[in-house]
Design goal:
Elements lengths: L1 E4 L4 E4 L3 H11 L8 E4 L2 H12 L7 E4 L7 E7 L5 E6 L17 H10 L5 E4 L4 H12 L3 E4 L7 H10 L2 E5 H4 L13 E5 L5 E5 L2 E5 L13 H13 L12 H18 L7 H5 L2 H9 L40 H7 L3
Parallel strand pairs: 1-5, 3-4, 7-8, 8-9, 9-10
Antiparallel strand pairs: 1-2, 5-6, 10-11, 11-12
Length: about 350
């Protein structure tokens, strides 16, 4: 769960890269099912209820006693060049104790998901664990497009297995660019290395090319930009599973990349990793894509429009202080986020 200390108020949202990508793809019209392990605390209930409100299928989310739902606090600071940027905190601002951290799902949970035998078009994961590897290998075997977006390595042996399983490897140069061998891996069909405001480079059919960034008209919060980019790519080329790669040409690949970049740039004008999704409906979002000075595509699949959430009155110190049953942005923060 993300707790964002915004310009005029604090608000909460279900977060993490996987959570954001699942919510964004649901917004774009996909049926999404996160596989996650949460606690039986207020934060776990908050996340589950918000996902359900957004149309995300929560049947593979387990809430386990003895597990605390992970929490991250996002704060805004002014950078050395005067720009507003964000920082993440993993400690309680009141007592200084560590906030609950991510706990991977179990092999048993993975087996239960596989037994359902609902074959996905795409499988996305950003953390390596025995469960994630089991699910990614199963998804690939069943013909799904497997997308791996790590932010760290952890266990090197498991990390290599994850890379070998993926059709698409996407990573940030800031996080993993210090590993030159990562750009040379042979398993993934597509390798994407993002460079923030400088754009990205992509390796396809053994050739590297670059795409400049799409300028954010109004920079409020860059958090979640990578998740929007990933969701746009999956939306553009993921339907039909890994077979789509057989007929993929450079034009369609660039379409997905530019769509992802454009969505990321628009979201920078709103607070929160999914601020644009809460503030805009799909018609307005497509209008903003069309009005861009860049040659960018629009969303070509009808998207579900989430109902407006009730306001959240939050204590940002710990999970059990979170009022149960309250979700999302308040009306004030929605109005603030709408200034672009």
């Amino acid at each position: 769960m993300d707790i964002v200390e915004g310009e005029s108020e604090t608000f909460a949202a279900a977060g993490g890269s996987c959570g954001n990508v699942m919510a964004l793809l649901s917004f774009m019209g996909w049926h999404t099912q996160p596989v996650a392990r949460l606690g039986t605390d207020n934060a776990g209930s908050f996340i589950t209820e918000e996902f359900e409100r957004l149309g995300v299928d929560t049947s593979h989310i387990t809430c386990t006693s003895g597990v605390r739902t992970p929490i991250v606090i996002q704060r805004f600071v002014e950078s050395s060049n005067g720009e507003r940027t964000h920082r993440f905190s993993l400690t309680c601002p009141d007592c200084g104790a560590w906030l609950p951290r991510y706990r991977p799902t179990t092999i048993k949970h993975a087996s239960e998901v596989i037994e359902k035998d609902r074959i996905p078009d795409a499988f996305f994961f950003d953390r390596v664990s025995p469960c994630a590897l089991k699910l990614s290998e199963w998804a690939r075997e069943k013909g799904a497009l497997v997308v791996f977006e790590p932010s760290s390595i952890g266990d090197e042996r498991q990390f290599q297995k994850a890379v070998d399983t993926a059709h698409i490897l996407k990573y940030s140069h800031d996080r993993l660019g210090h590993l030159p061998d990562l750009a040379k891996v042979s398993g993934p069909k597509i390798v994407i290395e993002t460079h923030g405001a400088e754009g990205l480079r992509v390796r396809w059919r053994s050739r590297w090319s670059t795409l400049p960034a799409i300028r954010a008209i109004h920079l409020v919060d860059a958090a979640g930009s990578g998740d929007w980019c990933t969701a746009g790519i999956i939306h553009a080329i993921g339907e039909g599973g890994s077979k789509a790669l057989e007929s993929l040409d450079k034009g369609r690949l660039d379409y997905g990349l530019r769509l992802g970049q454009a969505l990321a740039a628009i979201n920078c004008g709103f607070e929160g990793a999914r601020g644009a999704m809460d503030a805009l409906d799909i018609k307005r979002l497509n209008t903003m894509l069309s009005d861009s000075t860049e040659d960018v595509p629009t969303l070509d699949r009808p998207a579900a429009v989430p109902s407006a959430p009730p306001p959240a009155s939050l204590c940002h110190s710990c999970a059990d202080a979170l009022p149960s049953g309250k979700t999302g942005l308040s009306e004030n923060s929605k109005k603030r986020a709408g200034r672009v």
